[in-house]
């Protein structure tokens, strides 16, 4: 995109403990986008702080790419305001907005060398030849491609091409970097490696970054904050830990990672009834007697021996209400853990999926057909109002 000032020196990265001190760099208020009768975005309010890495996360069709395009000016919103660095950019054309963008398809010019691809934006805004050469050289070093400058895109791997696209987007020193599913076209191993490189590059440059992704692991590993979207709206905004450990809605709990879900009825205080038996649950604000969904993640379920009452004592296994007898129906080895499918009389017909570490499986001799006891920690049994 067009950038009216000279390329600035890279900003110093801001430490995580100073996150709350950052000032808002991008402010979106009351934003809607409609295509005829179809509403793609509804009432979006969001602030992105200076130097922050934010991921828009959600299923296909949730509105995350539409929101990114509205920020870029590629698809003007129907109503609402967008401010960047204090300036109202709501109706500015893309060329007058201060950002660099990287698409899923890289969009490199196949007839230009890597050096020429990176230099393209700088040449367009009339930078001196010597300045362009120096900037291109610095960026090639930064993305680890200093020896590839005279090659053409077709001569590079997919991961290398994506690095070139990043270098080209950063060449004009934009105030905002927009990434539209930049890793989805790469194989799994390259994706894991490149997401680490992108995050390190973003920290080094200190550029405010927004990335669209549908990959939960990608968002959890890269983002300072995640914006979870669904059906054109924002479900929750928070750090990866907040989103994973404290989901505010059943959609967020279900979309981010795996969950066991049980139809339940709210009891008195921090209690819930599942399958006509009582469990202690996390604190909540739902009224007693309400029909709800109780949820617990497979990774939060704690395995014990066949008789945890006598073997360890109730104080060692938390709340006695949450210790249940179970039968191992099936086990699936997934490298770092075993995904275990259990049946439990207290849960009636609802199966329970638990993820046990390989050490726990070996130590407790857990195998298909064995009887065990498992604990559902009170603070990890979450209640959600039915949709």
From TrEMBL:
<feature type="domain" description="ABC transporter">
    <location>
        <begin position="26"/>
        <end position="256"/>
    </location>
</feature>
<keyword id="KW-1003">Cell membrane</keyword>
<protein>
    <submittedName>
        <fullName>Putative 2-aminoethylphosphonate ABC transporter ATP-binding protein</fullName>
    </submittedName>
</protein>
<keyword id="KW-0997">Cell inner membrane</keyword>
<dbReference type="InterPro" id="IPR003593">
    <property type="entry name" value="AAA+_ATPase"/>
</dbReference>
<comment type="similarity">
    <text>Belongs to the ABC transporter superfamily.</text>
</comment>
<dbReference type="InterPro" id="IPR027417">
    <property type="entry name" value="P-loop_NTPase"/>
</dbReference>
<dbReference type="GO" id="GO:0016887">
    <property type="term" value="F:ATP hydrolysis activity"/>
</dbReference>
<keyword id="KW-0813">Transport</keyword>
<keyword id="KW-1278">Translocase</keyword>
<dbReference type="InterPro" id="IPR017871">
    <property type="entry name" value="ABC_transporter-like_CS"/>
</dbReference>
<keyword id="KW-0547">Nucleotide-binding</keyword>
<dbReference type="InterPro" id="IPR008995">
    <property type="entry name" value="Mo/tungstate-bd_C_term_dom"/>
</dbReference>
<dbReference type="InterPro" id="IPR003439">
    <property type="entry name" value="ABC_transporter-like_ATP-bd"/>
</dbReference>
<dbReference type="Pfam" id="PF00005">
    <property type="entry name" value="ABC_tran"/>
</dbReference>
<dbReference type="InterPro" id="IPR050093">
    <property type="entry name" value="ABC_SmlMolc_Importer"/>
</dbReference>
<dbReference type="GO" id="GO:0015697">
    <property type="term" value="P:quaternary ammonium group transport"/>
</dbReference>
<dbReference type="GO" id="GO:0005524">
    <property type="term" value="F:ATP binding"/>
</dbReference>
<keyword id="KW-0067">ATP-binding</keyword>
<dbReference type="InterPro" id="IPR017666">
    <property type="entry name" value="AminoethylPonate_ABC_PhnT2"/>
</dbReference>
<keyword id="KW-0472">Membrane</keyword>
């Amino acid at each position: 995109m067009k950038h009216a000032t000279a390329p600035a020196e890279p900003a110093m990265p801001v430490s995580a403990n100073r996150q709350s001190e950052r000032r808002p760099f991008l402010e979106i208020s009351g934003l809607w986008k409609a295509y005829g009768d179809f509403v793609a975005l509804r009432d979006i309010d969001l602030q992105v702080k200076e130097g922050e890495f934010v991921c828009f996360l959600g299923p296909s069709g949730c509105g995350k790419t539409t929101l990114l395009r509205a920020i870029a000016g590629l698809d003007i919103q129907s109503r609402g305001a967008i401010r960047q660095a204090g300036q109202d950019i709501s109706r500015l054309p893309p060329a007058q907005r201060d950002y660099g963008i990287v698409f899923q398809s890289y969009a490199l010019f196949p007839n230009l060398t890597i050096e020429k691809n990176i230099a393209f934006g700088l040449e367009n805004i009339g930078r001196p030849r010597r300045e362009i050469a120096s900037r291109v050289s610095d960026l090639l070093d930064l993305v680890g491609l200093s020896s590839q400058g005279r090659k053409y895109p077709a001569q590079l791997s997919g991961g290398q091409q994506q690095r070139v696209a990043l270098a080209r987007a950063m060449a004009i020193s934009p105030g905002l970097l927009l990434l539209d599913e930049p890793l989805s076209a790469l194989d799994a191993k390259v994706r894991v490696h490149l997401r680490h490189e992108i995050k390190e590059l973003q920290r080094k440059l200190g550029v405010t970054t927004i990335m669209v992704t549908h990959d939960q692991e990608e968002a959890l590993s890269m983002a300072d904050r995640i914006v979870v979207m669904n059906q054109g709206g924002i479900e929750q905004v928070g750090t990866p830990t907040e989103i994973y450990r404290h989901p505010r809605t059943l959609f967020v709990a279900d979309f981010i990672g795996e969950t066991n879900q049980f139809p339940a009825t709210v009891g008195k205080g921090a209690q819930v009834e599942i399958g006509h038996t009582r469990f202690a649950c996390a604190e909540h604000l739902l009224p007693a007697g309400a029909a709800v969904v109780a949820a617990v993640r497979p990774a939060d379920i704690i395995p014990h021996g066949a008789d945890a009452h006598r073997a360890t004592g109730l104080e060692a296994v938390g709340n006695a209400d949450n210790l249940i007898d179970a039968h191992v129906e099936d086990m699936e080895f997934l490298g770092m853990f075993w995904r275990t499918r259990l049946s439990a009389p207290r849960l009636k017909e609802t199966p329970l999926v638990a993820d046990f570490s390989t050490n726990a499986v070996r130590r407790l001799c857990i195998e298909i057909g064995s009887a065990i006891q498992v604990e559902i920690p009170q603070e990890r049994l979450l209640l959600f109002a039915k949709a």
